[in-house]
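Predict fold of ABC transporter ATP-binding protein; 237 aa.
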Amino acid sequence: MTNLLTIQNLSTYYAQSQVLHRLNLEIKSSEIVALLGRNGAGRSTCLKAIMGMVRTEGQIQYRDQSLIGLPSFKIAQLGIAYVPEDRAIFAGLTVEQNLKLGIKPPLRAESAWVWRLDDAYALFPILFERRAVAAEVLSGGEQQMLALARSLLGNPDLLLVDEPTEGLAPQVIAQLLDFFVSVKQRGVAILLVEQKLELAKQIADRFLILGNGNIVFDGRWGELIENQSLRQEWLEI
Ligand SMILES: Nc1ncnc2c1ncn2[C@@H]1O[C@H](COP(=O)(O)OP(=O)(O)OP(=O)(O)O)[C@@H](O)[C@H]1O
Ligand SMILES: [Mg+2]
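Predicted 3D structure, encoded as tokens:
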């Protein structure tokens, strides 16, 4: 299968400080890839680099298009959605207004599934109940649901999500995991930054570990869990 996203020799810089060092990674259609690593390893930087939000060198190829040098809005228009850690919802707008702002028709006629407002409400019924409420009064979990649902209404092929379960209750987390699986089943690939291995394990097809600015592991759960020294070196504190 051809790659949806191919990153080669990606280096990123904040002023003089380099975070990623010639990183390589690939994502195929409809797969959930968990991006793991210690705090400060550069996981958020990797997502920002894909979205054109940090200074980079190297290649980022999405389908048949290079993303290098494109502004973030263009990258989003090509079909990559990004849900940052702070969720970036419009606090003063209602839930439904936030969702409607996310609506974009699919880019490709062959898209298997077109996401509509009703799908967002079906995936997260609480958003329907709270559709007329200002986003700022939602709970943290509801805000995360809103951010995820809104990103989907842009009909992306690839969803980049940064630590969505951080600080949320187990019932909410369970709903988010179900959401990711539903989205994948309808053909969307997901690159998920997730700190908790036990959660990533439940949904990810493949695991990447970021260390020293590059990918130090790329494999399945079985390989990851068998390799204790790898986990000790790059994940456990
Ligand atoms: N805007 C910035 N300016 C300068 N340095 C930054 C900036 N953002 C991040 N960094 C630095 O880059 C490194 C990687 O940060 P990044 O946010 O990508 O890590 P992370 O793996 O997402 O970890 P965490 O989410 O736990 O902070 C860290 O050393 C961080 O301090
Ligand atoms: Mg981060």
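The domain at 3-234 is CATH 3.40.50.300 (Rossmann fold).
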